[in-house]
Amino acid sequence: MRLKSNSYTNGRLWGWNPPLKSSYDAVIIGGGLHGLATAYFLARQQKMSNVAVIEKRYIGFGGSGRNTAIVRANQRTQENIPLYKEALDMWPVLTRELDFNLMFYNCGNLNLAHSEAALKAMRLQVASAQFQGVQSHLLDPKGCKKLIPALDISDRPRYPIYGGMYHPPGGIVRHDAVVWGLAKGAAKLGIHIHQGTEVTGIGVRNKKIVSVQTDKGKIYTPRVLNAAGGYSAALSYEMLGIKLPISVLTIQAMVTQPLKPLLHHVVSSGAYHCYANQTLKGEIATGSHMDPWPNYTNQSTARYIKHQAEAMTELLPCLRGVKFMRIWGGLADMTPDMAPVIDGNNIITGYYMDCGWGYFGFKSCLVTGKYMAKFMADGICPGILKPFALRRFEQHRLMGETAAVVNYSPDN
Amino acid sequence: MKRIHKLPTFRIHPEQSLTVNFGKKQCRGVEGDTIATALYANDVRIFGRSLKYHRPRGLYSLDGECSNTLVAVDGVPNVRAENTPAVNGMTVNAQNVFGATPEFDMMRFMDELSWIMPAGFYYQTLHKPARIWPLAIKHIRKAAGLGVLEPDFRMKGKFDEVHISTDVCVIGGGPAGMCAALSAAQQGLRVVLLENRPWLGGAFEYRPSEYRNGLALYQRAKDLSKDVENTTNIRTFKNTAMIGSYNNGLVTAFQRGSKSEVFTERYMEIRAKSTVVATGCIERPLLFENNERPGVMQIGCAHRLARTWGLLPGKKAVFSIGHDLGIEAAIDLADLGLNIVAVADIRKDSYDSNLAEELEKRNIPFLSGWVATRAHGAKTVKAATISTINATRHRKFTCDTVVASAGMTPVTGPFTVAGGKLRYDKHTGFFLPYNMPPRMHIAGRILGLDDPLSIETSGRVAGLKAVSECGIPVKNLLRETQENLAKLTGPSRGTKLVSGPIKGKEAFICFDEDCTLKNIDQAMHKGFDVPELIKRFTSAGTGPGQGGIPGHNLPLYIAETGESPDRNPRPTTVRPPLVPTYLATYAGTNHDMSKRTPLHETQKAAGGRMERIGVWNRARRFSSDKNAENEIDNVRRNVGLLDASTLGKFRIFGPDALKALQRVYVGDMSKVRGDKVKYSAMCNEDGCLIDDGIVVKIGENDYYMTASTGRAGQTIEWIRYHTRYDGWKYHMVNLTDAYGVINMAGPDARKVLEKVTDADVSNQAFPFAGYREFSIQDVPVRAMRLGFVGELSYELHVPSSYMQSVWDLLENTGKAFGIQKFGLEAQNTLRMEKGHVIIGSESEQRTTLHDLGLGFLWYRNKPEAKTVGAFALKDTEHQKGRLKLVGFKMRDPKSRVPRDGSPIVDTRIRGYVCTARYSTAQKQPVGMALVDDYLSPVGTLIKIYEDGCRGNLMLAKIEPMPFYDPEGKRMRS
Question: In this predicted complex, what is the ipTM?
Answer without folding.
Answer: 0.94
